[in-house]
Amino acid sequence: MALGDLPTGEEKRVRVQDMFDRIAPRYDALNRVMSMGMDQRWRRRALDKVDVGEGDSVVDLACGTGDFCELVESRGARVVGVDFALQMLKQGQGRGLAHPAVQGDGEWLPFQTASVDVVTCGFALRNFVTLDSVLHEIARILKPGGRAALIDVDRPAWGPIRLAHSLYFDRIVPLVGGLVSDRKAYAYLPQSTAYLPPPDVLREMLSGAGFLEIDRESLFLGSAQILTGVRGPLMPDCETNS
Ligand SMILES: C[S@@+](CC[C@H](N)C(=O)[O-])C[C@H]1O[C@@H](n2cnc3c(N)ncnc32)[C@H](O)[C@@H]1O
Prior knowledge:
Structural class: alpha/beta
Order of helices and strands: HHEHEHEEHEHHHEE
Helix content: 40-55%
CATH superfamily: Vaccinia Virus protein VP39
Bound molecules: S-adenosylmethionine
CATH class: Alpha Beta
CATH topology: Rossmann fold
Strand content: 15-25%
Number of helices: 8
Distance between the termini: 38 Å
Number of domains: 1
Shape: globular
């Protein structure tokens, strides 16, 4: 689907929030099935890449039901989850997860400038209304030298694999998601990859937001990606939004 057919601006914010509130009850189960169990492996890989461990303060942006938060805590780090969909947060609480979580938007994070060691974000980059603002906001709350690990889906580049992936992601996922959960939401899921900028643009955006040592790792034949970066020195204009 072309970007022109997808919602933008406030309409996107409202639709995405409403969609995740609706699919929250079945989100975890469907997520595991649809990623064939690989999603947790990818989260662990992301945490390894930015070396999350004992004593780190971590913000998990767009935490959903708390999968990333749980893995972060298991490494002895302190984590706060942030998500704008209240039902996703409640679903996480229902799982008995112990980490604090707040309802908030990625474009206005409720944390002081240069106050956290790591920001993680799983499968949400394509959902933000203005990705560039969110990347700047992540950079703002990170201490200089702080790390970011961002995962999202991707589309394989090589023809035959791209075709097989498209059959699964564009046909089977919406079909199964529609039967078990919400037809509109699981039709939107593959369509929303159109919001994701290509790799070189993502790198430029991270660099423009103040990140150094930017790395992009492609996962499972190009069906997902991990972006990591280290927060560079503070710029004077980052001090304002604390
Ligand atoms: C695909 S889910 C991923 C959840 C979780 N990170 C995971 O790895 O399973 C995307 C999440 O992003 C959240 N989200 C989307 N846009 C957001 C925004 N602007 N601010 C905060 N959360 C947002 C949604 O509510 C949803 O919980």
